[in-house]
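Repro case for the chain-ordering regression, as requested:
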Amino acid sequence: MRREPGPGPILADRRSTGGLPIVARGVSFVRGETTILADIDLTITRGGRTIILGPNGSGKSTLLRILHGLIEPTRGTVTWNGAGNRPAEQAMVFQRPVLLRRSAEANLRYALKLARVRGNDADRRILEVLTDVGLTDVATRSARVLSGGEQQRLALARAWALDPAVLFLDEPTASLDPTATRAVEQIVSDIHAHGTTIVMTTHNLAQAKRLADDVVFLYGGRITERRSAELFFRSPQSAEAVAYLEGERL
Amino acid sequence: MHTLSDSVALALRLIAGFDAKLVEIVRLSLLVSLISTTLAACIGLPLGAAVAVARFPGRGIVIAFLNALMGLPPVVVGLFVYLMLSRAGPLGGFGILFTPQAMVIAQTILIVPILAALSRQIVEDAWSEYREQLTSLGAGMVGSATTLLWDTRYSLATVLLAGFGRAIAEVGAVMIVGGNIDGVTRVMTTTIALETSKGDLPLALGLGLVLIVLVILLNFAAHATRAWSRTHFG
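-- result from build under test --
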């Protein structure tokens, strides 16, 4: 049984101070001789589902990591609600879920412990999110022996358990079959319905259409277009986006 | 002087009959090596994890140094500990030269680099996989290192067994600092060396067999631990 949309009571105060808006100004990222991102200006505001779309190698994952504060830009700045330090009220789910060698439940408990949620509150939260993602049956099983789809749902549950203000997702369904992909998309929608801002990378156009409120199109390390999803898919403005949507090789 | 077959037969009889002297030597060997491995684990594993996770100037040199120390010559360690613990040495006041405590110290010094270097490699491999996720969750350096130590516990169990194997098979250092005193500091390896030099082979062979069986069992245990963990924890 799914919970009604609304902030979870345990971590609701985290949500209210979630480091939004996230503002990237003049962000570039260079590795060796290769410019991965160039002069990115981007603002993430509260509440939406932003899909960062683009072909392989366009810099999507790097941009997501910079917005989450995992890596620092070579040039430019990122601020979270005006501050220069990454706030704790964010979570990220990676393409390949990184789970600890312990039970599914213990993986959630670990994340909650880092967020200083313990005891009965932690127990309750764990039960809630495991129910939400449909993994109560495997709560005591080792996380690493779960199927790929279950592992990704568990990674989402771990992120959701923290009631993040912003959830970053780096191609979370890239290695999943269609059924598992739809399950993950449903969970992402549920998390969003509970008030979490979603920022997600994908190169799956159908998925972007299903999930996006607005689209940031990235090509060659530059944002060539940012529009509402409806406008983007109906009438893309940049030549690169047009070519990408038409399935041409970029 | 026994023939080889006589010696083997006598050795087997000593083992089968739980010869008191043999049992006492085996007991002391196990005790000293277990304590050494425990102490070395308390130092080496956190050290290895810290070097794996932390980034600091000269880290490469520290890693190279740790790796080099894995090949510490036991007799040199024995000599060093002897000089420290001898009456004229800085720690001579403790009066523990030629005691099992001195042997524990020597063995600990010998295996700390082994545990630190091997655990550093294991934890660093895990860190490359976990780093972004742990950082995202807000785990600090200490928290990450502790988490990685726990998460790689089955691989580290193999490292501990390797350290214990090295400790129990060691002869040079414990001979120097223990003195091979009968009933006090005589362990399997030093007894084998002494009895062989005396030409009294049954006890040496008996202890040799026990030692080989122990080493084989340790290797089986290491293998079984890894296989079990892969099945149950992925």
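Ordering looks correct now. The longest strand of chain A covers residues 34-44.
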